[in-house]
Amino acid sequence: MTRGGRRTGTPGTAYQNRTDLQAPKPPAGEYTGQTYGTAVSQRQAQQAMPVQAPGQAAGPPALPEDAVKAGSMGDLLGPDGADGPVTAGAALGAGPGPEALGLVNPELDSTRRDFAALAPYVPTFMFHASRAGASPSYVAWVQRLLAGA
């Protein structure tokens, strides 16, 4: 018995749920200039593979009428302030730093303050986390602390 159980179909039968097999197949194309024996294997491969019938459109469907067309929103990659330095918004180099972006997260700042306050105790935390009786949640907490999260 083949893998997957017994098959109930019969070869050469047209099944209603397989519309791809009911369409007439286009004739197999042969290309010249191939090495000896390649044309036969190519023809057999084309006959074994279900393909679209001639005249059917291939490719992706057309875009809807209200779709945004390419280039209709202007130059999205162009700089707004071309006279500013390239490093504007970065923590290094010329120009304003990250605070100019207005993305300061107060929760992240408090996490950094907490980490700075706990920094003297990190060796003790690491020692206790490496012991055999340390709980997994404590070890995970120390790992998060060391990652600066």
Distance between the termini: 57 Å
Low-confidence parts: none
Shape: elongated
| Number of helical segments with 4 or more residues | 5
* Cα-atom radius of gyration: 33 Å
DSSP, total strands: 0
Helix content: 25-40%
Order of helices and strands: HHHHH
Mean pLDDT score, rounded?
75
What percent of residues are in strands? under 5%
- Briefly note the structural class of the backbone: mainly alpha
How many strands, which pairing sense, and closed or not: the largest β-sheet?
Answer: none
Textual characterization of the structure:
The chain has 149 residues and is mainly α. It has a domain at 121-149. Helix content is 33%, strand content 0%. It has 5 helices and no strands. The chain has helices spanning 19-22, 38-48, 106-118, 122-130, 136-147. Helix 4 packs antiparallel against helix 5. It is elongated and about 80 Å long. The two termini are 57 Å apart. 0% of the residues are buried. The mean pLDDT is 75.
Structural features:
mainly alpha, elongated
Structure summary:
By secondary structure, the protein is an all-alpha fold. 33% of the residues lie in helices and 0% in strands.
Q: What are the SSEs and their pairings?
A:
Layout: H1 19-22, H2 38-48, H3 106-118, H4 122-130, H5 136-147
Helix pairs in contact: 4-5
